[in-house]
Amino acid sequence: MLKKRLIAINTTIVLGLGSVFSIPAVHASSIHELQGQKAQISGKRSQVQTNISAAVKKITSLQESQTKLNAQIKRIDQAIADNNTKIEETKEKIAQTQIEVDGLRSDITKLNERIAKRNDVLKQRALSFQESGGDVDYLSVILGSSSFRDFVDRVGAVATIVEADQDILKQHEADKKELKEKEAAVEKKLAELTSTKVEFEGMIAQIQDQKKESLILKADLKKKEAETQALKKGLEKTDSKLAAQEFSIQKQMEQERKRQAELEAARLRAAAEAQARKKEMEKRMSEQNRSQAQSSPTPSPSQSQSQSVPASDDSPARSSADSVHVISGGGNPVTAGYRYIGNSVYVFGGGRSDSDIANGRFDCSSFVHWAYEQAGISLGARGSVSTDTLKNMGSQVSSSDMQPGDLVFFNTYKTDGHVGIYVGNGKFIGAQSSTGVAVADMTSGYWKQKFNGRVVRIR
User: Fold this and answer.
1) Residue 31, pLDDT above cutoff 90
2) For residue 54, with 0-12 CB atoms within 10 Å meaning exposed, 13-18 middle and 19 or more buried, which class applies?
3) Residue 251 · residue 37 · CB < 8 Å
4) Distance between CA atoms of residues 167 and 163, nearest Å
5) pLDDT tens-digit series, residues 44-99
6) Contacts of 223 (CB under 8 A, 6+ apart)
7) Distance (Å, rounded) from C-alpha 289 to C-alpha 22?
8) What's the CA gap between 438 and 337, in Å, rounded?
9) What are the b/e assignments for 274-305, b being 16+ CB within 10 Å?
10) How confident is the model at residue 169 (pLDDT cuts 50, 70, 90)?
11) Angle at 158 between CA 153 and CA 162, to 5 degrees
12) Which pLDDT score, from 0 to 100, does residue 122 have?
């Protein structure tokens, strides 16, 4: 009876060991799922971080563009200040010239009065000459003297009259010539100053438009930068959430591993305790068998075989223990000006000094003059170059026969008010009031409307 009880206990221990070693598979599957979730979140984080890097690059690019634009706006502001100063100087010159004109007109009025009086005298002389038959017999006057004294007086009078006639005619002609010269000089000077004022005001209007466009572009850049910053902030927030999720899953995995490790340790302890109990039980059974053998007659072989405990009873325990899974960066007028693209400004009257050229301050005609000068071709004196002097150089060619290097003219604030150098493919380079030195398209938009068909080829 005791033997049966011991066998039952031993069987229970073995079954208990088997159940201890068969639990972990469920937890291993849970960790595998957590690892999959972590890998998925890591993939999302990688994409978000890539987008953040792209946003940072875009912000940097926008900031660089804004820095360049700010520098250009400063140049434009200085150009506007310079042109305003020139306009004020021109207004003063016009006012001073007006005073001079008023004085000249007063002189002209006096000249006209003198000429009118002389005309009256000459008319009287002419009338007297006609009444005398067309001849004045000065000799008869002299010979008709009554005495020598009278003779001398008459000779002097005749000489005075003749000289007076000649003097009147000379003064008359001189006054008329002076009148004509003064009137022409006054009109020319007024016309030149008025034309200059018109040109200055036209340039100021264009540069004001340029400044307006630049400010709009600057605002647009700031808007884009703000949008990109917001995008970057949103991406960083998303990345932070994903990182928190990733951290949470990592903690869960660590807790799961810890829990499984604790279970494993418990299983090992339980297995060790069960093994110890088994050995203890086997020892007791062995002792009990010896005691019974000593107190009972020697059993027959058949009885001995039927009462013995199989020596392989511990095999299932060893098999179960063995199966435990443990989770463990100039010589061509066409291209010479490319160096000034993006770092120049339009200044009316600019480009006529070394300082202006060094700082990229040109107007359209001075830029063309400078560009050709780089190719060793002189277009006249630097200080007197203008669209009017340029259009009369070289030879006129058809717009259908334009070639790179030809001068092209546009009607802006006046006829032939702008000039540039054709570069090919419907484009030209010039000092534009809205951009400084730049390449522009003359096949569409503003420049197509303003192109007047005048093309000059410099030979």
Assistant:
1) no
2) middle
3) no
4) 6
5) 878 888 888 888 888 888 888 778 778 777 887 888 788 778 778 878 888 887 88
6) none
7) 34
8) 8
9) bbeebeebbeebeeeeeeeeeeeeeeeeeeee
10) low
11) 150
12) 61
The predicted model scores a pTM of 0.51
CA dist list (Å): 386 to 352, 368, 379, 407? 11, 10, 10, 13
Q: How far separated are the first and last CA of the chain, in Å rounded? A: 132
* 439 DSSP β-pair partners: 429
The enclosing H or E element of 177 equals helix 148-295
- Could you say which architecture CATH assigns to the domain 1-294? Orthogonal Bundle (1.10)
The residue assigned the tokens 């700010």 is 70
Torsion of CA 180, 186, 189, 190, to 10 degrees: -130
Residues in the chain: 459
pLDDT tens per residue across span 66-75: 787 787 778 8
| Alpha-carbon span 363 to 352, nearest angstrom | 9
Q: Give me the pLDDT at residue 23, please.
A: 44
Architecture of the domain delimited by 336-457: Alpha-Beta Complex (3.90)
Tokens of 405: 């290097």
Establish whether domains 1-294 and 336-457 are of one fold: no
Q: Where are the domains of the chain?
A: 1-294, 336-457
Residue 156 has pLDDT above 50, yes or no: yes
Contact call for residues 18 and 320 (beta carbons, < 8 A): yes
